[in-house]
Amino acid sequence: MLMSSYIIDSFYRCLVCSIRQNKTDERRFSIYTGTKKRLHLRAESGEDRTTWLGAMLAVKDMYPRLPNSEIMAPVVSVVISTDKLKQRLLQEGLSETAIKESEDIMRAELSTLHKYIVALKQKQFMLIDALRHLETDKVDLENTVVEDQIQSKEEGDSFLSTHEKYSADGSASDSSDEHDRHDQSDDEDAFFDTSDILSTCSSDHMMSCHESEIEDETNPNSIRDSISAVVPVGFYYPNIKRRNKLPDPVEKENGISLWSIIKDNIGRDLTKVCLPVYFNEPLSSLQKCCEDLEYSYILDQAYEWGKRGNSFMRMLHVAAFAVSGYASTRGRSCKPFNPLLGETYEADYPDKGIRFISEKVSHHPMIVACHCEGNGWKFWGDSNLKSKFWGRSIQLDPVGILTLEFDDGEVFHWSKVTTSIYNLILGKLYCEHYGTMRVEGNREYTCKIKFKEQSIIDRNPHQVHGIVEDKKGKNVGTIFGKWDESLHYVIGGNSDKGKGSNVPSKPNLLWKRSPPPEYQTRYNLTQFAITLNEMTPGLKEKLPPTDSRLRPDQRCLENGEYQMANAEKLRLEQRQRQARNMQEKGWKPRWFAKDKGGNTYHYVGGYWETRDKGNWESCPNIFGQHSTDNDLNPSP
Description:
Keywords: Coiled coil, Lipid transport, Lipid-binding, Transport. About 30% of the residues lie in helices and about 20% in strands. By secondary structure, it is an alpha+beta fold.
């Protein structure tokens, strides 16, 4: 037998050692000594390894470990004698009745104590058993990591070969299933460590594509369109001062356990249980939709690239915008407020050049529609969520199509990927996004973006990788990075691999996440999200009575008035239970309408014109305390 890299200079006890076989090499195996040292061994052949393993296990079986049942033997039934107590009480002259009552009291107390000790023993048994399972899992994980490191060193793949491998796999696989949770295709292993690849790339390469070239599909071997002189001018917006922190809380917030709430409501209809605002963040789902526009400047740049005839760079920027909307979800463990039927939200941001309007258009199912106007583009869509509860986690599958249209007629469509929220009962909450997103254009290019699902031993989570294809299905570019950090792109593919005609360019920065705000809270809101619920001077008089900023429970939560927030939330949820009846009686949204023959919604217009006039008579007072059913229905 050959030792891997060192000579054994001590001995180890078989009783505490464990043996693991290498799955990739039939000659290798490892011995975990129970200390920090691990022995990585290699036999002369597979048969030799089998012989060694058999001999070691035989020796180990000669000294078996005691099973849990013997280590934690159950407490035997205890026989309680009261003879000494009875004799002592008789000496004191107590009656038989008093003595019998004293014996009963003592037996009851000892019985309770005995049950408590048995319960502690059982709990200790379970903890020891769980500890052994964890130790086994730990050894398995360590073994897997060691094997992966050894295999990685042996293979020594470079960035270019990894890029070519992924591009080949990605172009060959064109599955349209965006929510396949168990996709185990070969391209899973082709995700690469962006921190290693980009260590030599400067972040000021935002427009360094002017040093690169893009292959012209009319002559893929030599002709390329030079974009060296094209630097998007962009738009100049006014500088508007907005708040950079939430108000200081009025009251001290007390933590609440979700598990305790579930236990307290066993047997009750959970749909009628009002969860405390402790689990909410001071934003509504309508405002969460607006968070997707945080990096709207990417669409301004995409518009400029298209104006200058570069559809490829426009496609890259649209894909980056589609991914950037997930960046704000990092570290967000609280849920937004569920809007009331007919609730709206507007966002007028001259400093970003956008005007946004959203409305809750359906209660069952819960559907939110939105529309945004920018400089040279419009963005709209609607979505609802199909949820699956898995015990410790919940899976959310978005249903709906997002549409982006530029003034020159180029249109892009895409849908969001699956989101799962983990550790609902115990542990720290976190979310993960995974699946395939297809950004479909109506002209030259499409982009398929894969969000990699994080594994247990993944050292580089949140990775995304996208392939840009032309009308002929040829790979002309790649984007990669992390949805919560940044995206980079390279120009070129491997459609002519072997001829050296389509070598990828150096990675260039496409998008980078904004830094976190200076004043952090437990909600982990981004700087942009902090401004969404801000009531700027003079804004309240311009808002309709349905705007989310006027929702009392949400406003109280933002101000740190937690008792009032809980009371208002309960009141509004009781009112919201009328929404199903309203919808069945023919209620219709005010600013959106359903497309004929379809299930999608479109903006009917008129909101900003009505806002300029200040005429909100057609909008109901949905947050009012004494509103009637008729008051909840807007007039036509």
